Amino acid sequence: MFGWNGKILRIDLSEGKCKVEDMPTYLMTDYIGGRGMCTRILFDEIDPRIDALSPQNKLIFATGPLTGTGAPAASRFIASAKSPLSNCVSSPCCGGYFGANLKYAGYDLLILEGKSPRPVYVSIHNDRVEIRPAEHLWGKLATETEHALRADMKLRDDLDDWALNTMGIADIGPAGENLVRFACIMSDGGRAAGRSGLGAVMGSKNIKAVTALGMGQVNIADVEGFRKAVMGFYQEGRDNGELVKRRMYGTWSLPGRANKSKSQATFNFKEGYSEAFVKYEDPEVIRKLIRVRDEGCFSCPFGCSKRSRIKDPEYPFTAKGPEHETMALLGSNCGLGDMEDICRANYLCNELGMDTITAGAMVSCAMELYEEGYLPEKNLGYPLEFGNTNMFKLLKQIAHREGIGDSMAEGGIAFASKYGHPELFMGIKGMGIPAWHPQAFDALGLQYATNNVGANHTKSTLPFYEGRKDPAYFVEFTKKDQDYLATSDSGVLCWIIYHGPLWGEKLSEWLTYVTGAKHTVEGLDRMGERIWNLERLFNLKAGITFKDDTLPPRILKEPRVKNRVVNIDRLLQEYYKWRGWDEKGVPTQEKLRELGLEKEGTGVI
Amino acid sequence: MRIKIDHKKCIGCKQCEIVCSLAHTGTANPWRSRIRIFIKEEFCLPVIAGPYTEAACNSKGMVMVDGLEVDGCVVCRASCPTKSVYKEPDTGIALKCDFCGEPPDPQCVRWCAPEALTLIEE
């Protein structure tokens, strides 16, 4: 089989049993891989109404047909489960070496079911799959856990340096163990499957980590054609300068662009411009300040991720990031204007295993509650106005559920409601809004509001199509972009690299070379739409309705940026029509028939 | 002619390992590659497989790379009885870089986008 192993590894943690199943063919032909497959499996195997943190939830790690093949920036993996944060089906994407190793070990998907009676970690070394005790790892920070696991592995298997560092690890920090609803699954020293709180799902199953090391291989249908195509892609990247630009600055060029266009989330979205960030508008400044080296995910020549260091005796480490979203949400949105402080906050969140974006939205919400006098200082124990570095203390409290952190760990809506002002939490479906201020671009407001998992920057974002600035195309492009990202997440491609008009058709090209089956852009668009509609059906069954497709009142009513508000009602109706859904956002029978999902719609429509 | 390594430019993406295995075996598998990237926190170290040696070393030492102590075994290019790298995982046959044939056209160099590997005339 080309591009695939055709095997699913299923581990029942309650019983402590593993089994290997054959992959059903329709998963590969109708859902590509990654996100599409996960959504299909969750839709089939779990009841959407269950509590996300109960043993009935399933956690899936999935690769795509391109994982491990050498297709540039396409070796990521997807973690998927029902999200404890938004209660939607969620499938965050993560880089690093884990995905490729899972594939090389001989499995395309790993499904974790039930709940282990005691803390364990799962170790996958080719066909040797073990569930091992993890009491000694419980409570450890994310990279500490990794170091301990590599040391374990070295002792057991006498592996050399190269193999140990090639091994992929997905683990959780204290936040995941303590079931913080926005905990991440961390991977390979600071990468994260971040946005939907799947760390808490992993914690609820008592799994501290999953390690994967594979010595197997992936077969490619047309090796020569594939190698030539990759060379062509590099040439394209060199010619348009993207290859160098990405490697030099990664997402560090974005704070400047956001600030200049007045769309940088600032002071809990009260403003779109940060005075303190003016000095970081030139990415070269940030690079000189904190960069140690550039890093690439497995098989990614772009290397946009950065290892950075701060001059602080308390944190004598190098760490990944911070990326633009982190700089905005933990930085300008919380009033921090110093890069060293932002690095510290980023480091803390990564090690504790929390989503930097939702954590930033939580902290800024607490800051505004405090400044407005709704959150008394006696509850906090310290002052917490915007920009106060007491927020580091708060982040630790959230991860360990100490003091006020306990109520904050339950998510933004629950926390802000407790103090009487749910409207001050800037989130959608419980998930914090990412860096770009929705009032700056109408299309972005619509993207966030209609996103299947909440305000997620990786599942829907600013469309990059020709003519995107014309309001007449906002709705059409929103749909097109969402479907496109669903397919690229199923590949599994890196959305940052492949998000642009130039490279939109690359997925079909890579897939054709790797799997040997002819893929077309139209066919993939159809699959993207199918995945998006299936996610929608899952959410409808879970009780998420059109009423949740909205934005916080601040975005809808208070003109904060460019003197504009987002007219979501008008955009929504147009969007539903464009999607082939009724006025309540439920897919119509015709649409589902067209996508081959008639049976799945039963009971919903 | 030789391959010059500038480890400071290496980003640790392992594309060279994959293309090496693709070129030599027709499958993607870093374990069958003739080049290995050793990843350290501060930098990555590409090492290209040299000739096979039958004897294991008695004197294993540390060497300094960029002010950082690195196990001499890591930077040693030889495939030897005590190492697992530079060997076919199934058969144990030793691997050695062949510059991808004649005339030399090393695929690792062609796929190295950050240009950490370059082919130079001596």
Note the topology.
The complex is a heterodimer of chains A (605) and B (122).
Chain A lengths: L6 E6 L4 E6 L2 H7 L2 H12 L13 E4 L14 E6 L6 E2 L2 E2 L3 H7 L4 E5 L6 E6 L2 E6 L8 H16 L3 H6 L1 E4 L2 H4 L7 E3 L3 E3 L4 H7 L2 E7 L4 E2 L3 H17 L2 H8 L4 H7 L22 H8 E5 L9 E5 L8 E3 L3 H8 L7 H14 L3 H16 L5 H4 L10 H10 L4 H4 L3 H7 L8 E2 L2 E2 L9 H9 L23 H18 L14 H10 L5 H22 L10 H5 L10 H12 L9 H7 L10
Parallel strand pairs in A: 1-7, 8-13
Antiparallel strand pairs in A: 1-2, 3-4, 3-7, 4-5, 4-6, 8-9, 10-11, 10-13, 11-12, 15-16, 16-17, 18-19
Helix pairs in contact in A: 1-2, 2-20, 2-22, 8-21, 12-13, 12-14, 13-16, 19-20, 19-24, 20-22, 20-24
Chain B lengths: L1 E4 L9 H11 L1 E2 L6 E5 L4 E5 L13 E4 L2 E4 H4 L31 H5 L5 E4 L2
CATH superfamily of the largest domain in chain A: Aldehyde ferredoxin oxidoreductase, N-terminal domain
Q: Give the neighbour order of strands across the main sheet of chain B.
A: 1-7
How many strands appear in the DSSP assignment of chain A?
19
Overall average residue pLDDT of chain A: 92
* Rg measurement of chain B, Å: 14 Å
**Low-confidence spans of chain B:** none
> What is the 3D form of chain A?
globular
- Largest interface summary: A-B, 42 and 41 residues
Termini separation of chain B? 5 Å
Mean model confidence by pLDDT of chain B? 89
Alpha-beta content class of chain A: alpha+beta
Say how many strands of chain B there are. 7
Oligomer: heterodimer
The CATH architecture of the largest domain in chain A comes to 4-Layer Sandwich
| Class computed from helices, strands and strand pairing of chain B | alpha+beta
Poorly predicted ranges of chain A: none
Number of separate structural domains of chain A? 3
Fraction in beta strands of chain B: 15-25%
Please report which band the strand proportion of chain A falls in: under 5%, 5-15%, 15-25%, 25-35%, 35-45% or over 45%.
5-15%
What is the terminal separation of chain A in angstroms? 38 Å
- Cα-atom radius of gyration of chain A: 22 Å
